[in-house]
Amino acid sequence: MTAFPLPVPPPPAPGSGDYEYRLLTIPRDTTRAEARRLLTEHAEYGHWELARVRLYAGGARQVWLRRKIIRVTRTA
Fold this sequence. Notes:
By secondary structure, the protein is an alpha+beta fold. Helices cover about 20% and strands about 35% of the residues. The protein has one helix spanning about 30-45, and strands spanning about 1-5, 20-25, 50-55, 60-70. It has a four-stranded antiparallel beta sheet, covered by helices on one side. The longest helix has 15 residues, at about 30-45.
């Protein structure tokens, strides 16, 4: 399994804010339980949400995760 930032993010949905994207490639020999555990960990600890999943004929999966970019504005 590889994880790296996606250089070109998928097109944003209308009305969506700024998001940071991460692409996970899950190999075909990964069980559904292991994939679910991996995605759950990313969601709980990294605050990622599922944006898109692509399942290939060979069984490999590409998963796009996204999280909102929080911009801090100076108040003083």
